[in-house]
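Example with several molecule types.
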Amino acid sequence: MSHDPTDAPALDQRVHFYQVGSFAVGNRLLNADDRTVQSSAQRTNSIDSGHRACQGCGEALGARYALDAAMRATNGRLLAVNATGCLEVFSTPYPETSWRIPWLHSLFGNAPAVATGVSAAMRVKGREDVRVVAQAGDGGTVDIGFGTLSGMFERNDDVLFICYDNEGYMNTGVQRSAATPPAARTATTDVVGDEPGNPFGQGKDLPRIAMAHDIPYVATATVADLHDLERKVERAMSLRGARYLHVFVPCPLGWGAASNETIHLARLAQSTGLFPVFEAERGVVTNVLPIRRWSPVEEYLTLQRRYAHLVGPRGRPDIVARLQAIADANVVRYGLLPDERNDGEDD
Amino acid sequence: MFQVRIHGRGGQGVVTAAELLAVAAFNEGRHAQAFPSFGSERTGAPVVSYCRIDDREIRTREPVMAPDAVIVQDVTLIHQVDLFGGLGPDGYVLINTSRRIAELGLDDLDERFRPERLATCPATELAIEHVGRAVPNAALLGAFAALADQVPLEAIGVALRDRFGGVVGEQNFAAATAAFEHVTRGREAITRAATT
Amino acid sequence: MLRQLEGSRAIAETVALCRPEVVCAYPISPQTHIIEAIGRMVKDGSLAPCEFINVESEFAAMSVSIGASAAGARAYTATASQGLLFMIEAVYNAAGLGLPIVMTLANRAIGAPINIWNDHSDAMAVRDTGWIQLFAETNQEAADLHVQAFRLAEELSVPVMVCMDGFILTHAVEGVDLLDQATVDRFLPPYEPRQVLDPDDPVSIGAMVGPEAFEEVRYLAHLRQLDALDQIPVIADAFAELTGRASGGLVHPYRTADADTIVVAMGSVLGTIKDAVDRRREAGDRVGVLGITSFRPFPIAAVRRALSGARRVVVIEKAFSLGMGGVLATDVSMATLGSTAVLSTVVAGLGGRPIPRRSVEETIERAGRDQLTPLSFLDLDDGIIERERGRMARTRRSGPFAENVLRDLRQAKEGRP
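Resulting structure tokens for the full complex:
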């Protein structure tokens, strides 16, 4: 895989790196092979700057990397469908748009079906070189869009569906979704009563549900490892049929986290085992991103106000232990720590 | 306008019978309209279908409430539904049975309707014999052609061949022809009895 | 060629002649035969190129149509009743995005109580969505309206719904003269979208619009509907020139010229009403019928013109707004504003209740004697109503209407008190 600008496809949207103004962007100090798509001045800039996402928005970051990678993988022959949600709202404040790729927003719960229609149109017109990506937040994926997503999966329609999971309805003011983790505070799962925050024993594990459809490709990723995210987008775009990519995107606003902690939180979600990062093809796990440096969940929880009721002197170690058990179960299920856990020794 | 109401049970081709009759009339250059009673009926449930035949455009969409002919595809309906409601004294009655009218427990039929306009026909038996399936509709259409002089047997044959095609079309027409002959013989017997 | 065939079959074959490129299917009675027949044509290759997609809900059916249409494909689907309500969010969206989707609505009642039979409640529930709604009187007109619908939709960039009475038309076998491919191709040019998803010319479709422009956007959509009032007759005329058939247009007046009583209605019941009018004419009554073909946009001027000589206007409609009255009648009243004509609404045919010609004649006679109340219900079983009202008066928790009424009907049938 090479991202050297000299052999990149000639795309017409040049980019100014004024966000950072240094060579730090996209790891441009690395060898060409190790750089991300973002390091190229000829990346497509699918989502232009000037949009209205919050400072530190994980979704904006994830979407930019995912779509630019998809644009590169398809040689710029890409159409995007978007569900209602933060990404849609912050990218198209009237009368402006941040999208420099063809982009269609219809409704909250129908992005998978709309994408099916777009894909069918391309097929019927013999333009199968033009590929389709649909994207939604976790609400638009695991809740209101679930029916149309499952339909798109089972028909194996030629669509890559990307879920940007920030674990709640952030656009409407931080309410609980079926992707909200246990014990997390949201506006509809307040920290009152015996079981403060979101109840245990609920929620949907969408990557596994997607795998149960036996679709060609299912993968998870986080914005902490953008190389990994880009690689998975490229793998997905090399395949035909229904593909699903579930990207973990911290939300500083909804989680009560500092905006400079977005990458850190995404990394901790992976390194605690709370968010397993893996790939599956036709329902079988083919690759797992092992935990390099294991962290206890408390390290992750402490950085977020949505978990403030669990930690500190008046915290709930019993609930923290239950969350730790969930992380531990993920470690076992996906084999995230092939060797004996060696916490702390690498520090 | 000539209006036919067909009673039967789901799976007996009641709706198809009305359609075939309409197609046969259409093929004879007449206007025709066929429609079912629009139920969500399942196999075995009572079903009604209708057919209107006219020499001019048929505009009405009301169900057939005063039919000129009633065709009963399933004799087990006799005491279940009002089969002859709205049928006037000059109406035609055609019942699928191997028995005679008198044996059906419908003693008043002879009094209510003109005897030469009453007929029974063993349509199910004829269907089994000629088609190999107990679907009496094609045979009953042949019988109806003999009874009511609305559509000729040949037009029924065209509709059947068009609908089923090939061997099955011929088999259905054979059943219709046999039923046509059965009813014709019965009518001739009635005419002879009346004139002697 | 004139053929004797089922209404649904006539629609399926006509839609196929219109060369749809993406067709979505989700089963609901009474539209299923249409979509089944199209599915067969796609599968056996007689309709190509076309993508036929079995979706998981009506919401998905309209959503797939939205995606296909936005990507430049001619899109078609069909639904009815609950299915239309299930997709209603996407129905609004298709119109808001200006996508020229054509949909057949096999008109059917809405529950509860669940009812699969015909009335116009479903169409009335989406009258404000921004779709053009055309009502067919016969299967011939229903077939013809589909060809006109694609042209109208694509000329104006507005979705069009062809409404045809469920079962009464969809399942009726009657003579329909289907067009040939060359004629349809002459009438309906290939779809050239105004705005399309295309990698070579990226656009954002479906962006948010705030208070600063939303009202203007809606007003412009209204103007587009008013444009349709001009276009619908033009397209109907062009169609008549090509085929010799007077299908479509805004309204169909029948014997209204000297009529002092005019019945207004939509859909297949117009045939029955015309028969009733002819009989009243024979009896010396000066009666006519005004069939409304275009319900949205509502042709106020054309209706006003047609009703201008009438002293009485009787709207027979297969839907009503609970707690208010007629829906079509409310629109008709906008056309009779300032006139001295007496307007009566007769709600009829709900949930598949037959509308007998005899009852229509009686209604016309009563209207002629000025005995029609402003709102009445055709052939209402007053006994059932009185019994249920009595029950409600006696006990506060008298149970659900539907079950009580069914029990009453059964007891009446069995001869019990």
